[in-house]
Every structure is written in structure tokens, then in C-alpha cells.
Amino acid sequence: MPSDKHRDTAAAILPLVGGPDNVTSIAHCMTRLRIGLRDRSLVDDAALRELPGVLGLVEDDTYQIVLGPGAVARVTPAFEALVAAARQDSPAAPAAAPAAPVTADGLAARGAALRADRKARNATPVKLALRRIANIFVPLIPALIGCGIIAGLNGLLANAGLLPTLVPALAAIASGFLSLIAVFVGYNTAKEFGGTPVLGGAVAAIIVFPGVAKIDAFGQHLTPGQGGVLGALAAALLAVCVEKWCRTWVPEALDNLVTPTVTVLTAGLATLFGLMFLAGEIAAAIGAFAGWLLHAGGALAGLVLGGLFLPLVMLGLHQALIPIHTTLIEQSGYTVLLPILAMAGAGQVGAALAVYCRLPRNRSLRTVIKSALPAGFLGVGEPLIYGVSLPLGRPFVTACAGGAAGGAFVGLFNQLGSVFGSTAIGPSGWALFPLLDGHSGMGTTAAIYAGGLAVGYLVGFAATWFFGFTDRMLADLNTDGGKDPATAPPANTPAMA
User: Fold this and answer.
1) 29 catalytic per annotation
2) With bands split at pLDDT 50, 70 and 90, how would you rate the model's confidence at 124?
3) At CA 290, angle to CA 285 and CA 294, rounded to 5?
4) 4-110 has which CATH code?
5) pTM of the predicted model, to two decimals?
6) Domain spans, the chain
7) In terms of Cα–Cα distance, which of 319, 329, 330, 311 is closest to 135?
């Protein structure tokens, strides 16, 4: 149950987003409360930024309030309860409010909202598909994190020869979820695309059923789990299509009998005699490519991946990597990509520290940085991105340079044979240490990752110190009344649209 603090945060947010009648949808991911709005102009951005629990604001297809991991999972249900209670108290449609006076500022705000809305609509085809895929996998992240940490603890105990009677139990706890992750993916896929969730889960369960080993497809025996989450995703999507097709011709009196049967039978046969094999080949190719990329590309591959990840986070496209991470974890027990991508957060922290040191008189900005740095060290980058580096412009580029340097460091050691990764997805920064696993032992793996973080911090700091500000920016910002980057127009902002 949410604490008083989280209920107070939810209660403070509600009027600032236009009240319950302005809210059309409520959801959350790992760090953000995502709110659908009827009228964007009713939102008070400045007041929201001042709330103690709010770490940043992001505008996309939904209005996103960055609250941080843990907090968002507690504030969201409190916010939902407040909206539901307010609507219960006033079930009738509210009377139309008197028209507000038309002002230049109001027109400008509405025009900006319309332009942002049009821009979002123009980007819909690709971004919407990526968001829907993310909506399938994001709810699974807490279980992946918990099981990943337990798997790491179990590995330490097994290697040290401690508590031998507990090791098999921990192995079962850590592996149980991963052995059935296809079922959860199938369930969430059907739910996301408008089908019956349990039918998506039923079709995806075929993939992990041990009896599939007796079935021949494409001249070879199938293997339980073949195709993994990609096969489950495809199977559930097919099930949704079959189910919707059935609804168009099956009489209502027979719907409960015919539609589920035809859906499971048709999608199940297609899964066994096509999708499992094809998805298995794609999953194998993803694993082989990731291994080849770091083995052959090494430092160069790490530099590109680490340098480009912050722009992906800024655009919300980093969620598209979740199925790839999950596939790699299914195959080898860890994803080699996540420790490299986590270096982007290190570059961001280094850049923020340089901004803090370069602007000793700007109390407002230094306060923002001090409050956001703890989350940044733990891998939550949005407060620093949207509150500091991106509005300033040049420090965002220098933060990317720090991420590229850290990624190159980790990529180089992968190329030299110290291959390692994360047993779960979600955390980064210091929070990733308990999830590290690799071929070279925990000590070496942790040392390489720590070295990458240090390189990211140092290069991000140095690049921002020397190249993050023009003389004009320093003159404008390094004062007691310096511009707040969260509200001031950015200087030399890179084009990221």
C-alpha cells in the first residue's frame, strides 16, 4: 500500500495536470508515471518541477512524470485511486467551464502543444510499434531483476562451496521464471494487442512444453524453448489475429466454444510447424551477431553503442532493445550489451559534475544536480538528461562522449576475451554490480565494469569542462540569477528529432 508520502505526491500531481477530468489514461514504466491528457494546456509544468518527488518531465505520446524506480510503483496506484474517487464523487459530466480569456501566451502555449502533437503523430508508425513491444516486456523487468540477483548469489555460493543444500533451491527459484517467460510474453502480447490474454499465454506455453521434443519440423526435432520470447511474441500475435477473425463470423451463442478452440488450434499448429523454427533461427542469429560484434568490433563497437544510447533514451527508443536483451539472457544467461550501454549513464554523471563545478554561482542549477546525482549513479538518467544536459545542449553531446569512452573500454576487454554481461535488464550504473556475470570470474568482471564507469565519469567530466560551454553560456548561466535550463531555451542544442 502506498505510504503517506507517496499519496501526498499523487495528490499534489493531480491538480497540476488539470484534475481528474483531464486524465484519459494512467500507466507507469520503471521510472515514469505516464498520463494521457485531454488538454495539454491545463498542465502546470513549472509547478510540477517544483514538487519534491518529481525528478523530471518528458513529453511524448503521453505526459510523463519522472519519479524514479520504486517511487513510481507506489505513486501510480495512489494517483489512480484519487482519479477514480474524484470521478465517483461527480459521476455526471461536468458543466462546460467558462471560456478563458484569449491571451498571446495562451495562444502560444496551445500552438506549441499542437506542434508537439503533430510531431508525435508523424512519428507514430515506428515509435508506436516500439512502445507496444516495450509494453509487453517492461512489466517483466522486476521478475528478471529479482531472479537475476538470486542467480548471481547462487553462483557465488556454488563457487565458494558454501551452503550446498541451499544452492539447488536458489537455482530453482532463479530459473523458474526464465523457464516460463515465454508464457508471460504471450499473455502480455495478447493483452497489448487487444486479444484474450490467457489465449496468448496458452499458445506461447506450447513453446516450453517438454513434449515438443517428439515433434519433427523442417526435418529436425523441436527443442523445448526453441524460439524463446520471439517465438512467443509471434505466436501470441497470430493468436490475436485468429481470435479477431473468429469474432467476425462465429455466432454469439457458439463464441465461447468455437473461438478459443480455433484460436489455440490454428495458432498452435502454426507455432509448432513454423514459428518455433523461424524464431529459433532469428534468436540464434541475434546471439551470434552480438558475440561477433564485440569480438570483432571490440572498442569500436563499444564506442558506438555507448555513445548513441543517451539519444535513444531521450527519444524513448531504448525500450526496443528489451526483446534483444531478453533473448540473449535466455541463450547465455546474460546480455553482453547492457554493461556497455550502461556507460552512457556514466558519461551523463561526469558531465553533470562538470556543470556543477563550472557554474559555482548558479544555485538553482546546482540544487537540481545535487538532487539528481544519486539517481544518476544508480543508473536513472532521465532527471539529469531532461533537467541539466539536454536543455543546455553542449553538455548533452559531451555526456555522449563520456558514454562512448566507457563503452569503448568495456568493449575492448570483451574483444580480449573477458566476456561478461548482465543477468537481468533494468538497472545500470552502480545498481548493475549484483547482476554481473561472465567467463572471467566475479572479481575481474566487476573490476572491468568499474573501470568502464570510471572512464565514463572522467571523460564526461573532462569533455564538458573543456567543450561544454561557450563564453556566452558561462556569462549567462554562472550567476545567482542564472537561467534554469529546465525552462530556458537551449543554447546550441543538437538536432535530435
Assistant:
1) yes
2) low
3) 145
4) 3.30.1360.60
5) 0.73
6) 4-110, 180-291, 298-477
7) 319
